[in-house]
Amino acid sequence: MANPWAGEVALVIDGERRVLRLTLGALAELEAGLQAGSLLELVQRFERGGYSTSDVLALIVAGLRGNGWTGLAADLLQAEIEGGPLAAARVAAQLLARAFIVPESQ
Known about the structure:
Layout: E1 9-13, E2 16-20, H1 24-33, H2 39-47, H3 53-65, H4 84-100
Antiparallel strand pairs: 1-2
């Protein structure tokens, strides 16, 4: 189970449930690989709905790496994501939000 208090989000990739999280190292790698600027700019793109599919893929890769995955973005190009691109975008946005906010108690 994904733990929102630890910034975790779950995503099913090729039939396997994966837990993603953005560690400091994963965030640093993500920022270094962004085409445009900083994490703040990425957050702003998501807030206004102006993110790209490459933003979503970069966040998914960073989240997987933050939980120990050693693959490459290219490994996900043919992957089947449960829920499709919209689910992937939702998970990417949740990852980004959970990296910078404390979830409300349930």
